[in-house]
Amino acid sequence: MKTRRRRSEVALVPAFGAVLTPVRWVVLLGMLASLRLPFGREVDLQRGGVLGVIAIYAFAIAALPHLPEHRFTRTIQERLLLAADLAFSAAILLLSGGILSPYFGLLSLALIHATLLLGPRAGLCLAVGAAALVVIGEVLMPGGRGRVHDVSFAVSKLPFLLLIVWAAGRLAHQLREREAALRQSEGRALLLAAEEERVRQEMEAARRVQESLLPTAAPPPAGLAVAAHFQPAREVGGDIYDLIELPDGRLLVAVADVCGKGLPAALLAVAVQQGIRQFAQADPAAILANVNRLLLDRTPDEMFVTAACAVIDPEDGRATVAVAGHPPPLRWDDGQGRLVPLRARGPSLGLMPDWDGVSEPCRLGLGDVLILYTDGVIDAKLGSRERLGEQRLAALLGRTPPLSAQEWIDRVRDILDGCAQCPDDVTVVAVGREAARLAAPVPAVRAAA
């Protein structure tokens, strides 16, 4: 609605010419009706001549709008109609008493149309010329002292005509300025829309690239079941996870979170993922230490990375976990029926030259599950300010424990769906030792031997 209103305001100048079409016919009908009325002795109304001029003018305004478009443009048609208006006004004034004509207002209407169509300067020139012709006509007419009064009355009309034209010129100027400003704003809006579409397409391409870097579907090592959930807050995010089968058959599970969101965080996340693959080995603490050294020269001062790595032996469930400024992984102890947060701690990556974190050993029994997640999970908002938090997450997950790794992921997703909002990227990986559900393919990539 706002756009339509603005467009209608800007279109007043050409619209005035369109409005004149029915106005012209109303004026002609009114003049025909007024010819039967007495106008007084001072007005010398030549009704026969007026009828002739009306007939010629009616033919002109009926024919000019229908001129062939391939020969006469819209602008030419408007100017021909304007010429007809001016000629008609002059002829009627001449045939109906000059300055004392009851149709003197037609001249003002024609001058307003000329000003809106041709501009203020042309309108003023036409107004001065029309007033001069009226005065000259009154001077040349015979009549003695009465004519002197008419001449002075005609001269007094000059400021009135100029004022009308000046007001119409100001209106036309303001409307043209608004039209130019609107066109500029529309042009900028089109440029912005094109730029937004370009950025959207680039971000969509970046999202597909980031998804392609995540682990592809492959059977997990025998004895383990893996499930994962990845949800960036924007088109691309700063979270990554990876699943790498080491040459000795053990599974490396890594989750990392780059401080920040959007494309800069996604670019750094790719470097982190490539570093984890480059330094993949049996000791997760050594992996994180090497990635830390890799990031020192590549990470801006205001950015850092948190990560958690686990190396799991599928045969006996022995695992080693290392954490770098990351939420502690959760281990579901099926024998005791409870979730236990692991105690591995270490500073974030990319902040200091020497990363001094250590690995924590643990063991996954049959039915046990190891859950690694980013802080986007615990930062989910239950209300306007209240966070989900680690303790509430563990309580909700352990209330009715699922059976498989995928069911643990589904439980986390159900919890997040019940939150008011998830302002950060969300990544969750669950690795479980299951006896009867190991044939299903799960995401994994194999490290080069």
Helix content, binned percent: 40-55%
Q: What string, H for helix and E for strand, traces the elements in order?
A: HHHHHHHEEEEHHEEEEEEHHHEEE
CATH superfamily of the largest domain: PPM-type phosphatase domain
How much of the polypeptide forms β-strand, as a percent range?
Answer: 5-15%
How far from one another are the termini?
Answer: 66 Å
Largest sheet: 6 strands, mixed
Strand order of the largest sheet: 9-6-5-4-3-13
Q: How many domains, as an integer?
A: 2
Q: pLDDT average, as an integer? A: 79
Structural class: alpha+beta
CATH architecture of the largest domain: 4-Layer Sandwich
Q: Which topology of the largest domain does CATH recognise?
A: Phosphatase 2c, domain 1
Query: Could you say which overall geometry the principal axes of the C-alpha atoms support?
Result: rod-shaped
